[in-house]
Amino acid sequence: MAVIVSVAAWAQSADRLSRHFSEVQSIKAQFSQVLTDEDGLILEEANGEMWLQRPGRFRWDYTAPYQQQIGSDGKTMWMYDNELEQITLRPVAEGLGRTPAVLLSGEGDLFDQFNVTETGMAGGLEWLSLAPKEQDTDFKVIRLGFNGDALMAMELTDSLDQVTSIKFSGMQSNAKIKRDIFKLNIPKGTEVVGERG
Q1: Angstrom distance (rounded) from CA 72 to CA 79
Q2: Residue 137: phi, psi to the nearest 5?
Q3: What's the N-to-C CA distance of the chain in angstroms?
Q4: Which distant-in-sequence residues (6+ apart) come within 8 Å of 81 by Cβ?
Q5: Is the peptide bond preceding residue 132 cis, with omega within 30 degrees of 0?
Q6: How do residues 44-80 score in pLDDT, each as one tens digit?
Q7: 8 A C-beta contact, residue 70 and residue 81
Q8: What is the pTM of this model?
Q9: 3-class state of residue 142 by DSSP
Q10: How many Cβ atoms sit within 10 Å of the Cβ of residue 174?
Q11: Which of 72, 33, 30 is nearest to 172 (CA)?
């Protein structure tokens, strides 16, 4: 009986994940992010706004306590540090495969890249756990928290057992987003590291 239940739970999880990534083509939301160490002590807190357009385009603008932008136009991934006046570029083909951005951007087949398991209810959300099939990744486990089919939270555990918890608010699924949001703009006087895709 337990095997039947677990298979049914996995099928439901797979269905929810598939629906989310097939039916939701764009997202606009605010986010709050907390980084904790292996003992649960807070190392860093940040918040900002994010936009996503599948496949392959996304932008995360961190507004507090520092200003930083991480984005992709589908070909080039960039990270801009406002304080350092530095932007790091790398081709999406090199940059996305080893990060959780592959999840949200809709690039590739999730079930080819992750082992998906249902981990139950917590904090009013239904959680799925995704473990990368490849060893050479930035994160050991990625957890996704859903309210129905809406993605409301992510938890990313890295190789040092540090956990990045992200909560979304003001979520707008299939929002109309101007294409310019995902355009790479390099401010004058900015140091450029790496190259475009």
Answers
A1: 9
A2: -130, 165
A3: 50
A4: 68, 87
A5: no
A6: 999 999 999 988 899 999 998 989 999 999 889 899 9
A7: no
A8: 0.82
A9: strand
A10: 11
A11: 30
